[in-house]
Amino acid sequence: MVGRILGSVAIAATLVAGGWSGARAEEIRIGSVVSSTGPASLLGDPQKRTLEMLVEDINAKGGIKGNKLKLVLYDDGGDANAARTFATRLAEEDKVAVVIGGSTTGTTMAMAPVFEDAEIPFMSFAGAIQVIKPVRKWVFKTPHTDLMACEKIFTDLNARKLSKVAFLSGTDGFGKSMRDQCVAAAPKFGIEVVHEETYGPRDADMTPQLTNIKNKAGVQAIIIPGIGQGPAIGVRNYKQLAIAVPLYVSHGVASKEFIALAGEGAEGVRLPAAALLLGEKLAADDPQRPVVLDYTKAYEKKTGQPVSGFGGFAYDGFMIVAEAMKRAPSNKPAAIRDEIEKTKGFVGVDGIYNMSPQDHMGLDLSGFRMVEIRKGDWVAVP
Amino acid sequence: MLNRMLRSRYLPAFLMLAAMLALPYVLPSTYYLRVASMVFVFALAAMGLNLLLGLAGQVSLGHAGFMGVGAYAVAIGPTHLGVPAIPSALAGVALSCLLAYLMGRPILKLKGYYLAVATLGCGLLISMVLTNEAQWTGGPDGMGVPRLVLFDAPVRGVQTWYYVCGVALVIGMVLAINLTFSPTGRALRAIRDSEVAARVVGIDVARQKLFVFVLSAAYAAVAGSLLAFVNGHITPDSTSGFLRSIELITMVVLGGTGAVLGPVAGAAILVILPQALTVFHDYEHMILGLVMMACMIALRQGLVPALTARFRERTA
Amino acid sequence: MRASAMTTELLQFTFSGLTVGAVYASVALGFTLIYNASHVVNLAQGEFVMLGAMSTVFLAAAGLPLPVAMILAVLISMVAGLALHRFAIAPARGADPIALIIITIGASIFLRGLAQIVFDKRFHSLPPWFGAEPIVIGGAAVLPQSLVVLAGMLVVLVGLWLFMTRTLFGRAILAASNNPMAATLVGINVPVIVAATFLISSLLGAVVGILVTPITLTSYDAGTILALKGFAAVMLGGIGNPPGAVLGGLLLGLAESFGAGLISSQYKDAIAFVILLAVLLLRPRGLLGGAALERV
Known about the structure:
Chain B is mainly α and 316 residues long. Chain B contains 16 helices and four strands.
């Protein structure tokens, strides 16, 4: 009986799928799997909105080389298992030409083998370096690696002549990955990690951890790698305990609303940030200024929400793919892949991308700027 | 012959086997085989839980923890310890059983919601270790699972794993049916109905409960190992998380506790529904919640028992 | 000198634990009320907290004065509580407890799904009532809002106790939870009582959500973890016992903060659960749970 149920479900699903796959010749299918709900929805939601906005926009302008785009987007809820199933669906059922998405490193790594096998280019929004190292032929990514954020922070610490740091890192994928990269890179910069604490992604109070850091002799700076509410609460508690040493948060603090959430404690906090965060504050001759302002205006008009760095990953990812599709001789996955790899000098909101067969991200440290929060706004630190 | 099969206690297993063999001819692409494999894997884990809940009346809200042990065994064994995949899987099942034994001995004395929260705690502990001990497990982003190599040939392809998972499920079903009709099964049912009465008739209640708890952990570990092989990359949340445990218990209850096909039906609903609901985009969670509520209100014993009862009524 | 630094540290952990624990305690109290009247463990209780907080944020953002937004938000949460009872719990009357739990899980998925559409998926805060400048007590820094939360908790407890013992309706709830059959015989309308407990629980949840959001922030999916912790708190204290729920919540919060401060922040939730397990092994019905009663 269950067999019958399964069978009829399958038949029904086939009918629906058949309706979908009756593709018109001029339609290019772009697949996406993002975590627009669940614990990573802070990342996935702006990515989903960005992709929908960009596809709509391009189609309104007549598509790419006259071909309309069709976005097939699934929500994996942050579950690597669901991501894998949707990846198979994109490859097998939806027959997409290219995939943009994968909000977290976990979901990205679960999907990558599917697209490697199916030979479909996959542009991920995951931070961790393992996505592109070793290089996988079909896998690319747009965000800076966590290592770059660490290096940016450590360079700033060196300039301020501070060397002993304490970490308060999130136990989620982002916080954990960045913490690992930072601790590994610290000796190169003469930085000593003297104390480590963690927080859970849903913790509402971190005063015990910060009390320990405060009482630890010799701590000269605190670093909070993490995303979402964690760093905001950490900064509030840092203020509450009147801790005097400088505080750094990470590029996971991706949106201006962080300043409001973190409250007065945010004053003087520093972070490595992409140009997107600075917006109007970018110098008039900054090459990224036009693209940052365009995206920010369009996104805020479309969604009524402040622009977020995570959405920026999706913007860069989509635009790199769109440019590659314009250059590609055909709409075949392989042709698109080859052109993505040839991306040179693409100015995105996260930096200027120069990809190569050895580098499937194509960003260098110049994409990050050190910013400080002053009077409720970002200020670039020279 | 057919008549004997229809009356056989193994009928559900026959049906499952037939469905498993027939489906590849009906399903149009490997995507559907992947979805079906997921149904098999989660049905297997839920089936173990059903022995615990449906047969013995004991609840566990931490069963995904045992899935996590099975899953990480086949990832860690080959990656870090140089142990081949199959022995790793067996070790994972053994470890899972050992953990269940050590945890079960004290906590199975607890009743009802107290047992629920204690098992929930045990599941969280396992999940937390898998998340935090990153040098072994890769941390929250998870780790890759080396491809299974049998006789020098890597086992790959959605289709192969579909059959492996399906056969595992059928074997699991046969074992579950045997247990149900064995003296142990009768003892467990007696415990479910009344522990005091069971004790009075001479049943070693603690021992029987511990046995079925360990057995259900073994089911979960096997399911976890299969999940890891099928996916090739595992994360703590997707194998052992609290929400996964809740999902397993929901599968058992939706499908119907006690019925052998119940977990299969429950797993089918919770695996297939999210795939079907993608057409509703942002509304999919609301609809999923509504379907769950409606199912439980309309068919309060669960899908399979309620439907079989109706079927019997009509044919009687 | 060292000793006083130590005292300050412990005091700081205590305040942290009490603040977080007060949230768990109030969720636990909501569980207990509904459980007592209907033997339903309502895993959607966390969603009431979220609804109160998120509705206030969005109504205030829409231009309503904050107090009006708060009152409306509490009403919204109460409507949700009543609807949950009317459309999901009442029709399933007589079903297995486990089936009822699955219904409340379905309800929480539904409410979360609704919230992500009506509200958004970002984090939000509310302004603290008496500023963000911490008060220093014995060297430990306490946010004024923490005191508001603790005071609010106390008011709720006393109010609830008075309501339960001094009003006819409250006593009817008590009677119905002690013995529904006898209550029916003396003319108490048990379904109405159960509905009332859903109403009170959702009110309680919303109030707590509004009180703590200035400290904890909120988002559409804040309810899940609260339900989990609240459930653990209920069992720690002993199910069905309101003082037990409060005690369980506070202890759980303290276990987490002392665990994080003194042992390991990475395993603080594990420490809290190990303590819970240890308590249950010594007292299988929780700290304040009644004597074991077993049907034969």
